[in-house]
What does this fold into?
Amino acid sequence: MKKRFEGNVVMAIAIVLIVLVSQFRLIDGYVENYTDESIKRGAIVFATARGINALVSMAQSTTVEVGFIVSGSVSIGEILDPLNDLIERFSFIMTLVLSALVAIKILLLISAHDFFNYLIVVMGVFSIAVIYFNRCKEAEAVLKFFTIVVFIRFSLGIMVALNSVVDHAFLIGEVDTHEQNIEVFKDELELDSLDNVEIDFLKGLERKVESGVSSFLNLMVIFVLKSILLPLSFFFLLFSGVKLLWRSNILKIG
It folds into this structure.
C-alpha cells in the first residue's frame, strides 16, 4: 500500500513537471532554431549545387584544342558529365530533405500550439485528481489519454533535440568540410579560363571533379541521415516507448 502511494506521488510530480515544461516551452525555442538552421543550411547547399549545375551546363558544349603533349579536341563537358549527373540526383535528394525539414517545422508549430498546452493543463489536473481520489474506474483510460496528449506535444521536439545531439557530436564537422569544398569548387569553376588549355589544366579539372563528386556524395548521405533516417528512428523509439508504457502497470493506480 505504501509503495503504491509513493508511486502515485511520483506520478503526480511527473505530471506537474510535464505541465510546467509545456507551459514554459522549455525545449520549443531550441528545436525550432535548430530546424530553421537545418533548413537554411540545406537551402544554401541546394543553391550552390544548382549554381555548379548551371556552370557545368554552360561548359557542356565547350570544345578546346589541346596541344603540347597531345593534340586534338577535347570536350570539357565530357570531363564534367559525371559531376553533372550526380548534381541532378543530389538536387532531387535535397528537395526531399528540404521537404522533410519543412514538414517537421510545420508539425513542430502545430504541436507547440496553445491548444495542446491548454489540453495538457486540463488533462494534467484531471489526471492528478484521478490519482488523488483513487476511485475512478476510468483512471487508467484518463492517464493513457494524457500520455497520448503528451506524446503529441513533445515527441517531435524530443526527436529533433536527440537528432541535434547526434548532429553536433558526429556530423556537423563533416558537413562544414564538404560545404566548404563545394563552395571552393564552384569558385574555381567560375574563375577557370578555357582559353589556351593545356593537358595540365584538364588533369587539374579532373581532380577537381573527383573532389566535387566525393563532397556531393558525402553531403547527400549526411543530409539524408540527419534529416530523414535519424528523425524517423528516434520517432520510432519514442513511439515504441509509449507502447511499452501503455502495456505496463505504471499507468495503473490503486
